[in-house]
Specification:
4-stranded antiparallel β-sheet; single chain; about 60 residues; alpha+beta
């Protein structure tokens, strides 16, 4: 949804401090997003986002502990 937002508590960065990564869950869908300081379009963001549910064959009923 374009009008929704997700709060992220922890953001990791690489040793040089130029690239960042955030993992989050959105309604049962685990995702990992990595980024740098350049602005991207929504399509570019979705293209580079890692869908953990698809990688591990998880359904959206899975809950974090």
């Amino acid at each position: 949804m374009p009008t929704s937002f997700i709060r992220i508590k922890d953001i990791e960065q690489n040793a040089t401090g130029k690239k960042y990564c955030a993992c989050y869950i959105d309604d049962g869908h685990f995702k990992m997003r990595y980024f740098d300081k350049e602005e991207r379009t929504i399509d570019q963001i979705r293209e580079n986002e890692v869908d953990v549910n698809a990688l591990l064959d998880l359904n959206n009923y899975t809950m974090p502990i």
